[in-house]
Amino acid sequence: MDAKHLGDDLTVVLHTEEELRVRLAELAREIERDYPAEPPLLVGVLKGAVMVMADLARELNFHAQMDWMAVSSYGASTKSSGVVKILKDLDADITGRDVLIVEDIIDSGLTLAWLKENLESRGAKSVRICTMLRKPEALKVDVDVAYVGFDIPVEFVVGYGLDYAENYRNLRDVAILAPHVYSGS
Ligand SMILES: O=P(O)(O)OC[C@H]1O[C@H](OP(=O)(O)OP(=O)(O)O)[C@H](O)[C@@H]1O
Ligand SMILES: [Mg+2]
């Protein structure tokens, strides 16, 4: 799907499907090197991380277990509420385990800073973060991120799992959403 199928909703494609694939393969090689003994438990953050998780897990050359959490701080808005709610918790007990959080985007950093601390407090052996996208100039808190696909400008982006009001997640590329779509929200 490309912009012309979506009318004027998108302005610029920031990263194409192919760029995302190539970068994710590079990250997978780093992750394999960093966990030579025991593969980490991959923890995907629903719903945005579904695409990254599916592609990363298949790219990794080890037996990766996957678990999921759902937390939400955005809802139908382009601004984080700053309040993180657990909508679905992990099935796995992570005591003593290496955990790799898999995310689509770090924007203000509020969600991931909170989540990392939450998982560490459960007695995980280590908690690292892998994110496809990060907006360095939007960060409101320090988040230690081990693996970053691309740093992007402070624009609201959609596609490759990222939504606005639950739409656009199934776009193959990552694109900037035209402000007229969300103005007033
Ligand atoms: O760094 P932050 O400013 O905290 O933003 C990042 C978070 O916001 C998005 O989730 P959202 O709450 O939209 O849920 P979703 O994945 O279901 O879309 C995204 O998937 C991250 O989890
Ligand atoms: Mg969202």
UniProtKB/TrEMBL annotation:
Tell me the route in metabolism or biology where this protein functions. Purine metabolism; IMP biosynthesis via salvage pathway; IMP from hypoxanthine: step 1/1; Purine metabolism; GMP biosynthesis via salvage pathway; GMP from guanine: step 1/1
Q: Which domain of life is it from?
A: Bacteria
> Record keywords: Metal-binding included?
yes
Q: Where is the Phosphoribosyltransferase domain?
A: 23-164
* EC number per UniProt: 2.4.2.8
Q: Which UniProt keywords apply?
A: Cytoplasm, Glycosyltransferase, Magnesium, Metal-binding, Nucleotide-binding, Purine salvage, Transferase
Top enzyme class of this protein?
transferase
The record ties this protein, via InterPro entries, to: HGPRT, Hxn_phspho_trans, PRTase-like, PRTase_dom
Query: From the Swiss-Prot or TrEMBL record, what is one GO molecular function term?
Result: glycosyltransferase activity
Which Pfam families has this protein been placed in?
A: Pribosyltran
Required co-factors: Mg(2+)
Its recorded name reads Hypoxanthine phosphoribosyltransferase
